[in-house]
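Q: I have 420 residues here and want to know how they pack in 3D. Can you give me a structure?
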Amino acid sequence: MDNAPVRFILRGMEDIRDVLIIGGGLNGSALALALAQAGLSVAIVDRLANDIRADAAFDGRSYALAHASKRLLDAIGIWRGLADRTQPILQIKVTDGRAGEGPSPFVLEFDHAEIEEGPMGFMVEDRHLRRALMAAMADTPAIEQFSGLDVAGHAVDAAEAAVTLGDGSTVRARMLVGADGQHSPTARRAGIGRMGWAYGQTALVCAIDHSRPHNGCAHQFFMPPGPLAILPLPENRSSIVWTEADAEAARIQALDDAGYLDALRPRVGEFLGQIGLAGIRMTYPLTLSLAHRFAAPRVALLGDAAHRVHPIAGQGLNAGLKDVGALAEVLAIAHRRGEDIGRLDVLERYQRWRRFDTAALALATDGFNRLFSNDNALLRLGRDLGMGVVNSLPGLRRGLIREAAGLTGDLPRLLQGRPI
């Protein structure tokens, strides 16, 4: 299949869509499905051709989906076909220590049996989740896809937004959603600035196979350069998200596979038995980035375009799916009331719903990273004692489990498993 621009268009080009989503990643695709099922007409534009995005090697990451995120995927109709490719997270163990020395004796343990809803979350690989979303969009007549086309610019007025594509054509909609990443051109064109900083850390990401079972247990091992997450995948495989200082990460990534595994083994330890690489190796620079606003006239920001946080708690995609649920609900209700869904006062309802939560998440992940990514003896003692205290208090531990599972706060209906 070639990479020429592809269009799946079921309307005349002169029509005005309700919503035009710029960015066909996971969040943009999920929003398109949610809105289409709520009765809105949707167009989605992505600069990459569909065959590139559907390639299994496109992105080697895996995601820890919170229980509430699973509910959303179920509500928009893709979980049933995805479930047998996911791994339930039954336990989480949090430890502190140094590579090659093993963890400290203070272990913070969470077990899914402490909540009534079931597993705390589910691990799913990007290649499976992305393909499931793409297949569902292709089967949804209310979604028009513009694939392999850049967005050259957009303009808004009192009635609509007009987007100029790279081939010179124009698509019109009542409002735009920027789901185009942390450097969002949509946000820049809308005059929305952002704050943030680089951590000087890089995440090394890979999957491994191992000779011993993981038993559905996720591990977070805090080391001085940054955390190491060992996350269970189906069968005897695990996803590794391994944080190092930028220069050290570049050195390790440049090693051959044997050298890479030699560097990884003392960090993982021996509890999984023999390990080997099971797929591609990738790196991602770690940053914090928060848009000053999530809404402007006829424009809303979603996912990384609105906020990008440290992966220390594995909440990046979950926060994006909360955005999906909140924005879909705001737009669907306004549409049914006959309101102009692109008006700023409508879009500010979404901003009010999500702004505080994402700012709190950004501050929390930033604080945890600074607290744990160091080798200060007093801080190490304090955090180890703190983990021991939390582990001894069932009520507090249960509250943290529910928070990690996404079951607290003002949840959008889709994240409750309810239709909009």
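Q: Anything worth noting?
A: Residues 6-13 have pLDDT under 50 and may be disordered. The two ends are 37 Å apart (CA to CA).
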